[in-house]
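INFO batch 0412 | record 1 of 1 | parsing
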Amino acid sequence: MSGLVLGFYVQVEDNPYILGYVLSVFDGSSTCNVPPIYSMWCITNNLKLTIGETIKVYAAINIPSNAPLPSAVGFYMKVENTGQVVPLGTATKEMGYYSPVIGYTYSPGYQVNPDTTVTTNPLTTLVGAYTTFKLEPTMNDINGNPVHVYGPVSFYIAITTPGGTYIGKQIAGFAVYFPTRIVNFMASPNPARPGQSVTISGQLQRLTPDNQWVGAPDQVVSIFGDGKVVTDSNGNFSVTVQAPWGTGTYVYYAIFDENDSEWLMKSWAGLNLTVVQPTTPKPAPQPSTTTTPTIKPKLSAGDLAILGSGIAVIGGIVAYGVSKRKK
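INFO prediction complete | emitting tokens
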């Protein structure tokens, strides 16, 4: 159990079987539900319990050393909104250290002090009893009727002794919150160019008393470094931001920081936005121009012989004509 609430010491007067007791409540998870960047500044509040958590209630009871042990210790939670009482379990003397879920122990010669420390005292016996339960959105009261569990609650014990059942003081100050979650958290476009407009969007959901996840309208969601936005009627939200000018990967968070009036617990989500330089387009390929060379026909040996004979004939005719003119 990570969270612990101490300090609820009750002094019992005029009871020969009970001198006093301390009632402690452990919750199974931290209410400091924030992104890692905020964790160093987180202050947990263990008076805030969340639906779905495992809760352990422990009673340390001082009784006179010569008094008989209580036969049973019952644990109860009262839902203040309706006044209904939810039984959480009863630890009996015969049960002993039954399991981590429920049990009963006793230590002669010890006592619990108002500051919750334990010291020796030969005149007292320290009785320890505990029970563990899961906090559900709907539970049954002592009459078997369903009760929606949310808002302020208190815890108390009932100690069964030979002189009757002692009903302890109600320990108030606790509140049960509905869990929330942020889903579909994304950035578009992603990757983005330096300085480009980017839309960051998501949906805030809450758990209902009927154990259903629905959109949470009219809630404020913070976008880390870029302001706040209010969810619409379906719990959706979006904001436009400018991508960083430097390339790389950047983390963005959406944070819902509780709503104490509607009993909504905090939640968050994160995403990575990648910023890249735009690529320079390559020029389109141009069609190549090919010049076809002029090919001169080649003459074969036979062609050359015929051509040579023709030239000789022509030469002979020319020579004959010349000689004839001289005569």
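INFO post-check: Residues 301-326 form the longest helix (26 residues).
INFO record closed
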